[in-house]
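Exercise: predict the fold of this chain.
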Amino acid sequence: MLTEGSATGDDDGDSRDDRLRLLFTCCHPALSPESQVALALRTICGLTTVDIARVFLVPEPTIGQRISRAKAKIAKAHIPYRVPDEHELPDRLRPVLTTVYAVFTAGHHAPVGELDARLDLADEGVRLSRVLVELMPDEAECVGLLALTLATNARRRSRTDSAGEIVLLVDQDRSRWDHAAIAEASALVESVLRRGRPGAYQMQAAIACLHGLAPTYAETDWPQIAELYQLLEARWPTPVVRVNRAVAEAEVSGPQAGLALLAELVGTPTERWHLYWSTRADFQRRLGQMEVAADSYRQALECPCNDSDRRFLQRRLAEVEVLGPR
């Protein structure tokens, strides 16, 4: 429930409440869910239409149209600029959570430039998640989102080397992780899962905590992660979840199992996503299929991606080309 004074703001809350008013205004139920999130991302954190399009794997003109229609609808309907009353929250919470997570994602993995070019957005995503928990402590998915952002953000110092190049999870220095944040996230997950209403953000948070609590990559509980992704996909069947589930299944049952899961995405808009192709390429590389892996890396390089990802893909392509038939 909303805490006392949340709609008016105190000495330390004016900027927070301004941000929340704008967020809840953008997520008014009179707008379509897609328009709600696009408008919020554009207005709240200044993401460009290019950034937003890459986050959601849709064409840039589509995002521009959604934002324009949403602004016109708000003006025409005279939608008020305020935090909604308690009875209005259920209709708005889901897009608010989606927006905050998208803000965090755009900071954790920048759509353009270097991988860590927008760490300010990652911090803002964590901050907004905390504020939502303060406002609605009884909402399990708010707690789940906070745990997810904390556990994911905790690994950010180890994701690039001294030259700014990407370091994969298997090679990361875990001593550089923020273990206090991981412990906080884990405690939040345990507390909220006891409520018996596991939602998508809670399950993703549990996965992130399993990664964070593993002493080494080899000691990661991949079977449990794969099971959680299967449950998550049943509730939230998105291409991103499917690709991540494929990664987990490949660790449990081998890369062929991962490729089998990705096969259902062939011919879908997911093929615009470079991480779909790079995941596919990695499975093929591990199976010794160097020629097809090279083709998949080339497909990945044809997709929009940030500069850090592009350099990583170019290095991987060069490696499989050397190992392939001469």
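Check your answer against the key: The first helix runs from residue 14 to 26.
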